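quick q for whoever's on today - can somebody do inverse folding on this one?? i tried earlier but teh output was garbage lol. tokens:
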């Protein structure tokens, strides 16, 4: 659908969208993450004009492609926002923005042919590598009873035959969604490793570590100032090193630390300590797709 939208070269508004999107991508390529949504907010007005034209001309395909392309544009603002948070060291907040980016990639990708997904496959793979550097492993998946909901398009219950819309499909530039109006009760909360929404975290209320300490691996990676749109892999090596501060003794001798215990039941376990080493391997850089801004009548 994105390709179809940009092929509408007779519309001057499409050319304006291309120029703004190209500008946003160029800033990302230069790692300028200031004002993340500046171009998107300018483009919003233009997208609305195109949608109105599509509706006036009864062109549902153009209306739907406008919806998808608008989501595609918003993704690059979200990417800028994500990397801006990393620059500032706001790692906890960046987790939620990272999930926003991944959600937008999935949302756009489902409506686009594989050979027209442009940067999406690369960006998904790249962001998944960033995701691995966060310490989160266990999430909360709530179960609740929805007692009242309606279709976002027609306002009728989606589980009723009176609603003709299918959840997740596009209709005249709008996605059919189920709007939850009332939740009777939350039945349970399950701890899972792969939830639908990874923003549902478990965090310790009394964790007084600094942001840098909580997100140690991510912090060290960001401080290396690696180009943000370059694919990478991190290899984790674990090995043991000898602690020279612990003197070697016979197993049944009293430990020299003064504990009164035998060496084998005291400091012998401290002779070797676990050491972690991380190696970063850099691969290809993202090839941003720029669109021809030539306007054809």
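ok took a stab at it. sequence:
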């Amino acid at each position: 659908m994105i390709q179809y939208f940009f092929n509408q070269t007779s519309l001057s508004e499409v050319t304006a969208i291309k120029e703004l999107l190209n500008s946003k991508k160029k800033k990302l390529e230069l790692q300028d993450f200031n004002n993340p949504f500046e171009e998107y907010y300018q483009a919003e007005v233009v997208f609305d004009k195109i949608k109105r034209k599509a509706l006036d001309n009864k062109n549902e395909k153009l209306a739907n492609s406008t919806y998808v392309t608008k989501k595609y544009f918003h993704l690059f603002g979200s990417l800028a926002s994500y990397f801006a948070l990393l620059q500032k060291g706001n790692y906890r907040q960046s987790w939620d923005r990272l999930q926003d980016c991944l959600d937008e990639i999935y949302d756009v990708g489902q409506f686009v042919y594989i050979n027209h997904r442009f940067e999406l496959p690369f960006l998904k793979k790249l962001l998944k590598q960033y995701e691995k550097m966060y310490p989160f492993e266990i999430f909360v998946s709530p179960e609740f009873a929805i007692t009242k909901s309606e279709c976002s398009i027609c306002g009728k219950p989606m589980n009723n035959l009176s609603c003709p819309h299918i959840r997740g499909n596009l209709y005249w530039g709008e996605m059919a969604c189920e709007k939850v109006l009332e939740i009777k009760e939350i039945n349970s909360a399950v701890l899972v490793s792969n939830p639908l929404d990874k923003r549902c975290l478990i965090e310790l209320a009394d964790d007084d570590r600094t942001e840098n300490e909580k997100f140690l691996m991510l912090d060290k990676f960001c401080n290396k100032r690696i180009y943000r749109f370059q694919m990478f892999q991190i290899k984790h090596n674990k090995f043991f090193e000898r602690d020279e501060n612990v003197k070697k003794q016979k197993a049944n001798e009293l430990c020299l630390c003064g504990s009164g215990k035998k060496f084998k039941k005291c400091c012998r376990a401290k002779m070797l300590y676990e050491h972690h080493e991380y190696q970063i391997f850099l691969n290809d850089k993202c090839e941003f797709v720029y669109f021809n801004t030539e306007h054809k009548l």
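fwiw The chain has eight helices and six strands. also The beta strands are 139-151, 170-171, 174-175, 178-192, 230-242, 272-285. so keep that in mind when u check it
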